[in-house]
């Protein structure tokens, strides 16, 4: 082989090797596994499966550079310790409901649901386009967490009761599972409200530790089997008119991601937020039919005077959050403004249309 041919071939080989060295390790070194803890039972319909879909999207969209491993409630940490686990770095992400963290700061309630608050569509509008996300970032940032909307159940049911609710007197002394500010509202009306993670509700209802419970809506309530214990199923849920579910990522972990991977996390959460809401709307109707026709559940609407009294008391409870600190006041003011501005449009648009459609079509 002459000298010129040798040098040419050597140059090609070394160039290819260099390209390989530059490309492959850069991809491989970027791989990491993120620990996702949840407040939901493993594979629970809608909530647990939604968290898993979010995790799978992140893994797929990064081609495995970020692999998200899900730990259901109790597998790595107890469900209500998910927030602390992510805040301190024991875990990298959580999927849960922000009002579970009201012991950290009462304003977290606004980012799941507050009584007489925003519907799912209204909540998305506030978070994405009316200042909600920026306020949420500020609040969660105090705990070293970056938050994202990552699901919504839509309007929830009022709950399962072991007796009929005909007046406010029927609420007095009632032991009911209801977290967040909805629970505080019931306490002000004489009930005894407790917060329980999903997996503890059925045995508590079965043992008589609680007399009533709310959870989500027909699809999830059917899966938990509450109809086996009590048959009085009330609507609507004053406490959660559009319950947003959240993913929180350790802020140091999030800031350490590339811009591309940050965008993946954001978009995976947004995709699940949209998908889960549509899934609940698609499944609740058939589940309600099963509860009514197969399991003979007694579906009842809260009497107007009971609902009105609950709503008025709820407004007092929600307004008190604004007094916690300056950030709470800004969150409250922004939320209430969104409820009015977005709600005014909703009454003219969607609400009027659906009422008119039902009148025409029955």
UniProtKB/TrEMBL annotation:
Chain segments annotated as transmembrane: none
UniProt: substrate binding residues: 156, 177, 214, 240
Entries under Pfam families matching the protein: DctP
One GO process term, biological-process aspect: transmembrane transport
Superkingdom in the source lineage: Bacteria
GO molecular function term, any single one: metal ion binding
Residues of the signal peptide: 1-28
GO cellular component: tripartite ATP-independent periplasmic transporter complex
Annotated PANTHER family: EXTRACYTOPLASMIC SOLUTE RECEPTOR PROTEIN, PTHR33376
Name of this chain's protein: TRAP-type mannitol/chloroaromatic compound transport system, substrate-binding protein
